[in-house]
Structures are given as structure tokens and as C-alpha cells.
């Protein structure tokens, strides 16, 4: 209770009012009693003074106690008001109760009535203060709940988890109102918790209750609109005086986004053939990925907490341990360490391209080390095999066994090998003894040249040639060969060795390779152009981050780096498969636009709208690159507040902007690689060519028109 209780006693009899005040202050040292003989003035004092309780007579000239009570209740519904009157009747008492009187006491003779009145005042004020404290506590609790990112609940420990109370972001989290959950119209345990997680959630909660500890669990829920979300829940039991569980209370929050980031990290970390992990700056192992653990045949707990050089991978030799220690020391100083070493696995040793890379904070301090190892054992074996094959090739090349003949210095054929004879319809007897230029391998177009090559070789020169030989089936074979003189001790040519190899297939492949290289050169130009936007975003955001220190810019830069990775993967896939479009699916265009907008990083005043329900059958990565080029083109050529609209029409889908449009005279040239309306600028002129390449790869057509909804350009993409 407060240090004092301020009471205003209103009574039209001054002597009685003063007497009552004296007795009340004598009854309790807490009381500070003021008196007033006019009801209307009393109402004014109630409005102007900070009072804890009002005591009023009923029969007064200006207004009755009931009328005064009604006026007070209109403005101060919670102020304690005691009717202390000499006129007692059931009617007055009933009217007072109806008007909201706090207490009713009839005047009597004797001093005991003041003791009773003092007690009634203390009780009324204490009750009002308690109610006020409860309301304030409830208000604070409601404020806390309204600012908590999740829902707070009280439920029964029964199957289905019947909810008695639900507060907070129930609708935001699950899509259901608190009333729907509390009424049992929707069961949290049976309708909201994912069916595959219900049993596990029950078991984990019961296990925690058995141990008498709070429970923490992560599980999936299904929202009212069919979404699947991940949630984290923490709760505890509520027991009665006998220790029996009567309820559970807890908190549930949405962790879908953090779960998505966790899975992305796990996918990068564990779904790779490279060995990698995380180290403290002193080299202590924090984490090792599945590839590294599987190679060594060990569990995670066998290495976590140990120095890197004490891991099983480096047990094969002291040299390996020393290299690992040196790598950590180098990375501790902020430098990259890289070397090729041999490490120990469960069943084998392996050569690895080993590195340790430092990770620094904004102050440049090393906070983590990332060790990586790429198994290059097969590469080493291939290099060795290649060296052996080169030796074998040299031996075969220098040994007369492939398209090889022996000539006299005048060009007469002395011998020829069997493989050479397979190219013509002739036997050795038909060939030997004849001038080489008269043999069936040569047409009239080559005879003079062959005679000249023989003469040059006879003079001691090494002659290389390429020619087309007619074949037995009427075709022709392209060969590469040479005329090599065999000299005696004085350097005079005594024989000529002619050797040749069939390069028909190689020439065919070279022509095909040239064609494909030209195609991929064009594609590489497009990808290089497409990379400019996210790379520029990274540079710009990192500069802003350095200037402002705001992490939002670092996050935006990280998103742009993710887009660079996607474009890199797109390039690798295309180079591997030769296909720009590897597969299509039905795509909600609005979902792709979010990533496009992030990658392009347009001015804040720019805007894009997509007609609701616009869906396109396309390759997601290729479509995103196409839209990035279109949006980037609109941003580059349009005003800062450029507006973009995308939607479907009867023949396909369209893209419009509010920019300056494209001159009709330029529309036939706009998709030409290298063409740009901005002359002399580096790195331009590829965006629209990239758009056309992606359009054609999907089997579509693209047409340029004037805008229908906006004042700029309109691109219509239709099936061909």
C-alpha cells in the first residue's frame, strides 16, 4: 500500500465532515482526509486532485450521492467510492450498486462506525491498487507478447496438445486465429504439426517431463495455406501442489529461414568431393565435412577439438604433420597456404592439393581457418600415363609401322608397310619398284609436289606434308606425314623414309571444334556480360559497407555473390552439355523476379510488377539470366523511377517498361552481338544478344513493339 491514502469526504454538514476526518486520521496514520460540503465543488476537486478514495453522503442540496457517483464513474471508473449516508434503504443501496459504488455504509451513533469506515476505505484502496497492478502487469505482458516473434501458449499434456491459451503471432506463424486453436477447431498436435514429426515431438516432450527439465525441439508445421515451415519450441511443465503436471507453457517461433541457410551451408559443406572443414585460428578442428571423414574412415568426434596436424590424415609421415602445422601458422598470419602433399586414408594414401585459407573479420583479425584438400591422385596417375604414352608414341612414330615406306633417293619404292596397303587396292608387288609419285596414294594433283618432296629429302631436308589419299571405297583420307632422309656417315642421304598418319577424324573434329568454339565464344561473351550486373552489385555494396559499416550491404553483396555462383554453374553446365537450356519446368514468374531484382540492384525508385498468376514453362537459370538482361537494359536506358510490367497474353508473355523505347529503325539490329545504342562503351552490346540466344534455346520467338501499358518498349516472347 502507498505511504498515505488521500481521502475526500463530501458531506453537506461541516461539523460531521470534520469529525469524520479527525476520527479517520486517528484510526490510521496512512489517512490524509480532506473535506468538502458542496457536492459540485467536490466533483471539481476529484477532477483536479490526485485522490485514492471518495467518501460521500447521499442527501445533499446540489446533487445526491448517487448522482455524484454516476458523474465520477463516467470519468473515473476505477476510483474507490464509498457511500456513507444517514439515509439507509434498500432502494438507495440498490441504486448505489447499480451506479458502481465500491462500498455502502450507513451512519450510526458511536465511534465504532469510524473504525468500520476506515477498514472499508483501506480494503477498497488496497483492492483498487491490486487491480491496477494486475492490469499493469497484464499490459506489460501483452506488450512483451506483441513484440515476441512467435506465439506463446498454455496447453494440456494430452495427445493433440489441446490449447487453453494462445497469444502472439499465431496467425502469422500458422495461419490460424488464436480462437480457432483454443476452441479445438484446429488441433495443434494433429492438424498443424507435420504428420511425420508428430510422434517424435510427443516422445521428446514426454522424455523432458520425465527428467523434470524444460524441453527444446525443432519440427515442421503445415500452415493453413499449405506451406511447410520449420519452428523451434521451448517449454516447461506447470504442476499443482502435489507435483502433478496440469499444463505445459512455452514459446514457438518460425526458424524456416535459418533452417534454409543451415541446409544451404550443409549442402555446400557436405555435398562435395573435396575435403574441407573449419579450424580455430590456433588450428583446433571445429568441423570436418563428410568427404574428409569418410576418406579417413573416422567419426566427427574423433577429430573435433584436436589440432589439425594430429588428425588421421597426417599420420602417414612426419613430413605431412609438419606441412599441416606450417599451413596453420601461415594462415594464422593472414596468408593462404597451398601445397601438394600425400595424406593417409582408411585404406589408401592419396595425393591432395592441400590449402589452408584464413577468414578475417572487419578489423582484419583472423577468426577462422578453412582447410581444403582436393584428391589429385587420379590426376597424378593420368600425368604418369600420359608421359608413358608419349614415349610409346615416339617409339611408334619412329618405327616404320603406320603408313610407312622406304624409298631410294630417286623416289623408287623399295618397301611399304601393311597398314599403308590397306588404303589402296594394290599389293606390295604392285607398288615396289615404281616411282612413289606414281603409286595409287597420289592423284594427279599431288604428283608434281611428291616429286619435289623426294628431291628435297634426297638433298638432306626434312619435309613435312599434308595430303588427301584416295581410299579403296572411293573416299579420301587426310594424312599428315614427312619425308625424312637417312644419311650415312658423311651426311649424304642414302634412303628416304616416308611416314604418315591418318588425321581424317582429327581434321573432322577440329572443324567441329572450331564450330563449337565459335558458338561457345559467343556464349562466353553473353555470360561475361551477365556477370557484370552482380559483380557491380558486389563492388558497390562492399564500398557502401566500408563507408557506412551497415551489414545490410554485406548481405546484399553476399546475395550477388550467390548469383555469380549460379551463373558460373550455368556456364559449367552449358559447356559440359552443350545446351543452354538443360530442362524446363512450370515457373511462377514472380518468384524468379525476386532474385532478378536482387542481382540487378536497381535504384530504390525503380519498380516492377508481375501480373498475378503469370507462369512460364522454362529453364529457371536461363530465364533468370534473360530477365536480368532485360531489367538491366531498362535500368540502364530508363529513368531512375523506371517502371517495369510483365505478364501473359494469348500467345505467350510480354515485358514492358516506361523507358525511352527503341527506335523502330534499330529493332532489327538490337539482338546483334556487339550492337549497342551507346557507342564507345566497354562491355556493352551483349545483353540483348544473350536474351535472343536464350529465347531461341527455348524454341521461342521474340518481337519488339511499342508499349501497350507503359510508354517504353514492349518485348513479346511467343512459341515459334
From TrEMBL:
Domain of life per record: Archaea
GO molecular function, one term: phosphorelay sensor kinase activity
Entries under PROSITE patterns matching the protein: HIS_KIN, PAC, PAS, RESPONSE_REGULATORY
Pfam families to which the protein is assigned, alphabetical: HATPase_c, PAS_3, PAS_4, PAS_9, Response_reg
Residue ranges annotated for the PAC domain, each copy included: 215-267, 461-515
Domain PAS: 137-212, 261-306
Keywords of this entry: Kinase, Phosphoprotein, Transferase
Response regulatory domain residues: 6-122
Its EC number(s): 2.7.13.3
Modified residues (4-aspartylphosphate): 57
Secreted listed as a keyword: no
Region entry Disordered, spans: 469-490
Catalytic activity entry: ATP + protein L-histidine = ADP + protein N-phospho-L-histidine
Histidine kinase domain residues: 526-720
Keyword Kinase: yes
Protein name: histidine kinase
Native source organism of the sequence: Halobellus clavatus
Phylogenetic lineage: Archaea, Methanobacteriati, Methanobacteriota, Stenosarchaea group, Halobacteria
Amino acid at each position: 500500500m502507498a505511504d498515505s491514502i488521500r481521502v475526500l469526504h463530501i458531506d453537506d454538514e461541516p461539523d460531521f465532515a470534520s469529525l469524520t476526518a479527525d476520527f479517520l486520521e486517528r484510526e490510521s496514520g496512512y489517512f490524509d482526509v480532506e473535506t468538502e460540503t458542496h457536492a459540485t465543488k467536490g466533483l471539481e476537486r476529484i477532477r483536479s486532485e490526485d485522490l485514492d478514495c471518495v467518501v460521500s453522503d447521499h442527501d445533499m442540496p446540489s446533487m445526491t450521492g448517487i448522482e455524484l457517483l454516476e458523474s465520477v464513474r463516467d470519468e473515473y471508473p476505477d476510483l474507490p467510492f464509498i457511500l456513507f449516508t444517514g439515509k439507509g434503504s434498500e432502494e438507495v443501496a440498490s441504486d448505489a450498486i447499480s451506479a458502481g459504488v465500491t462500498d455502502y455504509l450507513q451512519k450510526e451513533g458511536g465511534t465504532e462506525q469510524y473504525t468500520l469506515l476506515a477498514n472499508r476505505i483501506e480494503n477498497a484502496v488496497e483492492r483498487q491498487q491490486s487491480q491496477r497492478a494486475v492490469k499493469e502487469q497484464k499490459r506489460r505482458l501483452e506488450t512483451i507478447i506483441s513484440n515476441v516473434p512467435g506465439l506463446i501458449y498454455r496447453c494440456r499434456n494430452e495427445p493433440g496438445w489441446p490449447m487453453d491459451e494462445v497469444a502472439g503471432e499465431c496467425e502469422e506463424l500458422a495461419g490460424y486465429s488464436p480462437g480457432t486453436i483454443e476452441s479445438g477447431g484446429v488441433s495443434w498436435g494433429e492438424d498443424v504439426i507435420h504428420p511425420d514429426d508428430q510422434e517424435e515431438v510427443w516422445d521428446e516432450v514426454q522424455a523432458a517431463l520425465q527428467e523434470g527439465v524444460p524441453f527444446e525441439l525443432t519440427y515442421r508445421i503445415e500452415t493453413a495455406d499449405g506451406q511447410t515451415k520449420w519452428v523451434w519450441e521451448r517449454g516447461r511443465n506447470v504442476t499443482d501442489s502435489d507435483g502433478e503436471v496440469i499444463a505445459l507453457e512455452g514459446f514457438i517461433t518460425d526458424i524456416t529461414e535459418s533452417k534454409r541457410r543451415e541446409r544451404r551451408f550443409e549442402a555446400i559443406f557436405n555435398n562435395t568431393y573435396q575435403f574441407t572443414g573449419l579450424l580455430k585460428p590456433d588450428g583446433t578442428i571445429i568441423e570436418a565435412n563428410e568427404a574428409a571423414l569418410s576418406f579417413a574412415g573416422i567419426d566427427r568426434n574423433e577429430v573435433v577439438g584436436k589440432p589439425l596436424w594430429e588428425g588421421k590424415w597426417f599420420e602417414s609421415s612426419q613430413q605431412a604433420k609438419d606441412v599441416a602445422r606450417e599451413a596453420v601458422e601461415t594462415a594464422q598470419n593472414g596468408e593462404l597456404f597451398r601445397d601438394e602433399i600425400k595424406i593417409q586414408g582408411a585404406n589408401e594414401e592419396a595425393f591432395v592439393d592441400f590449402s589452408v585459407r584464413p577468414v578475417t573479420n572487419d578489423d582484419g583479425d583472423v577468426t577462422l581457418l578453412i582447410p581444403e584438400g582436393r584428391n589429385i591422385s587420379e590426376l597424378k596417375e593420368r600425368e604418369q600415363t600420359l608421359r608413358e604414352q608419349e614415349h610409346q608414341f615416339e617409339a611408334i612414330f619412329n618405327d616404320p609401322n603406320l603408313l610407312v615406306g622406304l624409298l631410294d633417293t630417286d623416289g623408287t619404292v623399295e618397301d611399304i608397310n601393311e597398314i599403308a596397303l590397306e588404303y589402296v587396292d594394290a599389293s606390295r608387288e604392285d607398288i615396289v619398284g615404281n616411282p612413289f609419285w606414281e603409286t595409287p596414294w597420289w592423284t594427279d594433283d599431288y604428283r608434281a609436289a611428291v616429286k619435289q618432296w623426294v628431291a628435297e629429302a634426297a638433298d638432306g631436308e626434312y619435309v613435312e606434308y599434308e595430303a588427301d589419299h584416295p581410299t579403296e571405297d572411293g573416299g579420301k583420307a587426310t594424312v599428315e606425314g614427312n619425308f625424312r632422309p637417312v644419311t650415312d656417315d658423311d651426311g649424304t642421304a642414302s634412303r628416304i623414309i616416308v611416314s604418315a598418319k591418318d588425321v581424317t577424324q582429327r581434321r573432322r573434329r577440329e572443324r567441329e571444334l572450331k564450330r563449337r568454339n565459335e558458338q561457345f565464344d559467343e556464349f562466353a561473351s553473353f555470360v561475361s556480360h551477365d556477370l557484370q550486373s552482380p559483380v557491380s552489385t558486389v563492388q558497390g555494396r562492399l564500398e557502401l559497407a566500408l563507408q557506412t559499416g551497415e551489414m545490410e550491404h554485406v548481405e546484399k553483396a553476399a546475395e550477388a555473390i550467390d548469383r555469380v555462383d549460379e551463373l558460373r554453374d550455368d556456364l559449367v553446365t552449358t559447356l559440359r552439355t552443350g545446351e543452354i537450356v538443360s530442362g524446363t519446368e512450370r515457373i511462377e514468374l514472380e518468384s524468379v523476379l525476386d532474385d532478378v531484382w536482387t542481382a540487378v540492384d536497381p535504384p530504390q525508385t525503380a519498380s516492377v510488377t508481375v501480373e498475378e498468376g503469370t507462369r512460364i514453362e522454362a529453364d529457371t537459370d536461363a530465364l533468370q539470366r534473360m530477365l536480368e538482361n532485360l531489367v538491366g537494359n531498362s535500368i540502364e536506358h530508363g529513368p531512375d523511377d523506371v517502371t517495369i510490367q510483365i505478364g501473359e497474353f494469348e500467345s505467350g508473355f510480354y515485358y514492358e517498361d516506361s523507358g525511352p523505347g527503341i527506335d523502330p529503325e534499330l529493332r532489327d539490329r538490337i539482338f546483334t552481338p556487339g550492337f549497342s545504342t551507346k557507342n564507345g562503351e566497354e562491355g556493352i552490346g551483349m545483353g540483348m544478344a544473350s536474351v535472343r540466344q536464350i529465347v531461341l534455346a527455348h524454341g521461342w520467338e521474340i518481337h519488339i513493339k511499342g508499349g501497350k501499358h507503359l510508354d517504353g518498349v514492349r518485348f513479346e516472347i511467343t512459341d515459334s
